[in-house]
Design brief:
Largest sheet: none
Number of helices: 5
Shape: elongated
Number of strands: 0
Strand content: under 5%
Structural class: mainly alpha
Distance between the termini: 18 Å
Length: 145
């Protein structure tokens, strides 16, 4: 039987990570590096994307990993799902930003792409570690997840 926290954790952790990442993108790319454009539109974009990406990651992990796989396969699959969703989103957002010019895709395409892919790769490991290691699960328990 799958426990409630096994279903909640993949979604909650993914949303927390992606929202935190989008806040950094908003502050660094949207305000500091490329300040042109309406701040409130940039904020809506980053907030919406942060929630949507995290919810998508958590849903995919729940469908394909939770209750289906165990370590060592489960963290590998969860990290792969996490990175794949974010890589897709980087490519999609790159195309969108080429049109609207909020976050520097026109001016600095490699910065835009690598600024999304490198953190996605690093946080995919952290995501899997939190969900599937004993010490990661202990941290989640301490914070109420």
């Amino acid at each position: 039987m799958i426990e409630r926290r096994q279903v909640v954790r993949p979604v909650a952790v993914a949303i927390a990570f992606t929202l935190a990442g989008e806040v950094l993108i908003f502050l660094i790319w949207g305000i500091s590096l490329f300040p042109v454009g309406a701040i409130w539109r940039k904020l809506i974009w980053t907030t919406t994307c942060g929630v949507a990406m995290g919810a998508s990651i958590g849903a995919f992990v729940n469908v394909f990993v939770t209750g289906q796989l165990r370590p060592p396969k489960a963290p590998i699959a969860a990290a792969a799902i996490y990175f794949s969703v974010l890589a897709f989103c980087v490519a999609l957002c790159y195309q969108i930003d080429l049109s609207i010019g909020f976050f520097g895709a026109r001016e600095a395409p490699w910065l835009f792409i690598l600024g999304g892919l490198i953190p996605a790769l690093v946080t995919s490991y952290a995501y899997a570690w939190l969900l599937y290691s004993n010490s990661g699960q202990a941290i989640l328990t301490r914070v109420g997840l």
